[in-house]
Amino acid sequence: MSFPSFDSFPSLDPGPSSQPDESALSKKLDERKDSDRKRERGYEPRDDRAHRDHKREREHSHSENKGDRKRAHSSRDKSSREHKDRHRSSKHETSSHRDRDRQHDTQAQRSATRDVSNQDLALFVSDRRGDKLNITYGSLHASSIPRFRRKGKDVFGAEMGFKIIHESSKGVEVGLLGRRPGMRYVDRAAATILHATEVQRLVKPLNRPLRREDEETGFIPLSNRAKPTRTRDKSFQELLLDGEDHLSSTSESEISDHDDDNDETTLTGHTADQEAIRLLEETLVQDPTSLTSWHSLLAHSLASIPIDSKNARKVRGEITLSVLSRALAAHDSNGTSARFRALYLHAGESVWSADKLTAEWETALRTVRSKAQIYLAWFNWRLKVRMRAGDIASVAEDASRTLRALDGPSMEIARVGVILRSARFFIEAGYHERGIALFQAQIELAYFCPETLRNAPLSTQLSVFEEFWDSEVPRMGEDGATGWVTWMQSPSIESDTSARTTRRRAYEPASKAGEDHYAQWYEAEVHMDKQHNRPLRTTDESDDPYATILLSDIRAFLSIIRTDEGRWFLLHAFLAFLGLHIPDLAASFDHSTSNGSDDDLAQPSDGWILPYSNRFVSSLFPESPVSDDWDVSAGIVVAKEDTESKRRATFGQIKEWPWKALHPLVGTAPKGVGRMWETVDTEHLDHEFIDNVFTQMSNVLENDDDWDTLHIAFQASMSTKSAAKLSKSLLAKRPDSLVLWTTHALLEQIRGRNDEARAVLKANLIDSSPATSRPGAAEMWWHWANLEWMSGDVDRTKEIILASCDQPITSGVGLLKAKRTLDDRITASTSDRRHWICLRALFELIVTSNASFALEVFVKVNDVEEQALLDVCSSLMLHHFAHTLRNPCPAAVLRTHAETTLGRNPENTVVLGCFIESQRGQWSLDRNKKLRSTQSAGGRPRRLVRTLWDIWNAGQERGEYAYERLRQSLNQAANQPGVSPLLWKIFLALECHAGTPTRAKNVMFRGTGDCPWSKDLYLPAFGPIQSAFKSTELSHWAESMVERGVRLRQELDIFTQNQDDHDMDDGEDLPAVEAEIEHRAHELRRLMPY
Q1: Whole-angstrom Cα distance, residue 307 to residue 311?
Q2: How many helices (H) and strands (E) in the chain?
Q3: What are phi and psi of 941, to 5 degrees?
Q4: CB atoms near residue 239 (< 10 Å)
Q5: Is 227 helix (H, G, I), strand (E, B) or coil?
Q6: What spatial distance separates the first Cα and last Cα of the chain, rounded to whole Å?
Q7: Which pTM does this prediction carry?
Q8: In a 3-state reduction of DSSP, which class is residue 326?
Q9: Which residue from 197, 553, 733, 1022 has the highest number of Cβ atoms inside 10 Å of its Cβ?
Q10: Distances (CA, A) of 47 to 38, 53, 426, 944
């Protein structure tokens, strides 16, 4: 709290005065000094004799002061008369007179103040003769303000209790009770301290271990001793050189002092990053093959370079090269890591020349241990190089080399990854027909190959397959397709292309008056890419040369896939390519291609496996970053009521969990809400084509319950009624399948028909009494018990669990026998053990109503993969128990379990959602920052699916800085190797949604530099962010798309020519417009002041 100084107060009533002579002035100054010294001595405590001496001196001083006052008054009267005469005779010399008058007034006021200071009861004195020059000059000069004497630290006019703390030329600082307020984090001094380079940090003493009590409590107590004397701060290099000598030179007496005082801690004069780097250097000297330590050293070295700083990419690349070059030279085994080589090569892209970069990639292909990982990373790099040069035709050569290098049955999944990456590349570059044709041909070779050619070489198969391809018969996914093997048996089948001809229609843009023609061309391209994606036949009429796909266009991308695992992954990769997200597909692919080492990934594959659309991208961001959670009532800011509709969502639209952890029709909420495929996930897809794929493959995959379950789930995302019809038709063919009956019961629950679901479950479990070892029996028991539990009927749930154990007795003995039976089945079972564990945990939960006892059941598993599945089940069970069913549960149990499972499953969105729910009301900025971190153990970056979840989570947060937090997350993810176009599309959509076209333009340039083949990164220049471009820039941008090989459905010149013609038509009124402009210019010149 601050008040203005007395210098800003007006004078009380000063009178006119004149400047005295120098001798009188010096004499008065000497007298004033003597008086001040005597007064100071008078206030000091003395004995009685000294007090009497002081009293006589004060009386003597008082008599002298009387004479001084008389002389001062007479001098002032005389100077006043002289002043009046001088003022009448020197009207034009007011400036010099003003200066002399100011000096005199100052001296006179000092004399008057000194006289008043000896009067204890007089606080101020008034001079009633005003200065007439104040009227002449309009104000009082600062030097003419009367002198004052402050009595104590009180402030006149301030509230009681406020006293002066500090005084300066600008004013005085006032505080309550004269105490200085504490420093806040927003103060400048606090910011200076936080940003200081020299800091002291409390660390664990290096020369002795902590006490057992300190280790158990988890903190280091502060010392009660005085602060040690700081010496000169050494440089970081000196600390590294003499650190050990300093520790060894510590005296024995000092060590004993440390042992006596258990509160002693060690103070270091360098930062935490420097301390961490020093410890990592010591670790690497002992073990140079520790890749985790090298990655940690790299992370600390890059921490001082902000990602968004100028030339950050080049500087960070040079630092990365320096650290990783040391690692490669330290030990030969470090160079065999795919992750290590990928980081090394990614950093070299911004530093090395093209020839050196190519040579380093060739070295990596020879030395890296995981061939699948390094060749996939090399293929991604070659896509970038080819498209920058506009040589899309040479991509086939790179794909062929990659497929040849990954030869053999053990590399089939990796080859499927190359096929999926190539097809995704064609889609992103605008060649949709070629991507679909590639998968059609590969599935025909893998599933519909004739028996006589199944073991033949690929060249032999393709020579025969070319006849089938050129016959123009329906292919996989098209109406009437029967497969290659059927055509070989009846080659006279002819193609019916009437349906396809009616689908391909030319887009005719509706020309609107005043609408920009660049925007029309943008809408035409987007519409045609969405609608015209199926390949045409040679008999179809089309002017597009890329719409018809010959076998020679895709021959180099085909391979032999014969194993069951490879064909399973091929089929599900096709579904992902068509737009259906398969949870855990990318993680399973990385696990298979990295020889089981998830930390040694060159580039995570979810960047090109995730099938998220543009509609999904636009739905990630909040409608408004401004918070509306507060209201004002009677001038008081209050929080609005937190209703369920406004509560922060727990589980979002990012769905990632282990395969088969949840049934395709089971979601994170009752009635299937949050399941794998919902309406919002499939409404933009080609339903007819995907349904044909499911139906045609069902005839090949005989009795595949998992495939039929996916088909029902896809139909349920569009219409639950049609899905019920499909389910009944499949059950009519296979009535003995418990998996299909369970799917049908879950479908009835989604439709809200719980009684029908109970009837289905009872008919298959109670009436028929199937064996517990029958496939699907344990899962059916679990879903039935879960149905009753979620309905709130605990007694009925207990009866069902007892019935599954063949225990009709509900007493204590029956409960104990049921627990023993479930434990025995958990021990004996293998495939259905997870469902028996869930039943056992649910039984413990409803009997004891204690969540801790139920969680102990899930801990009894040692298998890592099964533990990941059970983490999902336990998290949802605990979430439903505490939040959905509103049962009392300690918050500490929820938080502890959520943090434990999150450490094992950092990309599992079910676990992440439960973690968010457990932290509700306990959220902190540090936890949020740690949760959003893009780095994980071992230097492995977070997957793109985790980055998408972080973006969704940031969009759910409330506050005006949501966009900035999203930018930071995306900037960190964009600096990782192998960035996908999906990430750049999200970044671009964020800036468009934020209304910052200039930022969006910069992001678009960065994105097209990393992914020069992505058409979706070029098109926004003609649509959402067109305001940031000039017309000439747009024309050059379209030419760049053509030069790089990006496909354009229609020529831009057709639309711009229409605009030119329109401008020429408007040119008829050009003379009138020019005349008006000239008239306005003339008026502006006439009205100018000069």
Answers
A1: 9
A2: 48, 7
A3: -75, 155
A4: 17
A5: coil
A6: 51
A7: 0.74
A8: helix
A9: 1022
A10: 17, 10, 104, 86
Tell me, what's the pLDDT at 494?
Answer: 56
| Residue in the block written with tokens 């009677």 | 634
Relative orientation angle of helices 338-348 and 354-367, to the nearest 10 degrees = 180
d(CA 505, CA 532) in angstroms, rounded, equals 8
Residue written as tokens 């391209």?
A: 525
56, exposed or middle or buried, with CB in 10 Å at 0-12, 13-18, 19+?
exposed
- Whole-angstrom distance, CA of residue 571 vs CA of residue 567: 6
**Structure tokens of 633?**
């009532």
Q: Tally Cβ neighbours within 10 Å of residue 1066.
A: 10
Residue listed under structure tokens 């590294």 = 240
303-928-960 Cα angle (round to 5):
100
For the four alpha carbons of 402, 405, 408 and 413, in that order, the dihedral sign comes to negative
Rounded CA-CA distance 606/583 in Å is: 11
Q: Would you say 614 and 1017 are in contact if contact means Cβ atoms under 8 Å apart? A: no
Contact 602, 977 (CB under 8 A): yes
Q: What is the reported pLDDT for 757? A: 95
Give the tokens for residue 499: 């349906």
Task: Give me the residues of the chain with pLDDT under 50, please.
Answer: 1-22, 25, 43-52, 61-66, 68-76, 78-97, 112-121, 206-208, 215-218, 224, 226-268, 497-503, 513, 624-628, 642-646, 934-938, 1062-1069, 1090
User: Three-class SS of residue 665?
Assistant: coil
Reading the block at residue 712, the tokens are 């029902």
Q: How far, in Å, are 1063, 1064, 1072, 1077, 1082 from residue 1068 at the CA level?
A: 9, 8, 9, 16, 24
- The number of residues making up the chain comes to 1090
Residues 6+ away with beta carbon under 8 Å from 808:
802, 814
Q: What is the pLDDT of residue 261?
A: 43
Q: Per-residue DSSP letters for 189-220?
A: HHHHHHT-S---EEE--SSSPPPHHHHHHTS-
**Residue 3 β-bridge partners:** 172
How many Å apart are CA 472 and CA 537, to the nearest integer? 6
861 sits in the region (left: phi over 0; alpha: psi -120 to 50; else beta) called beta
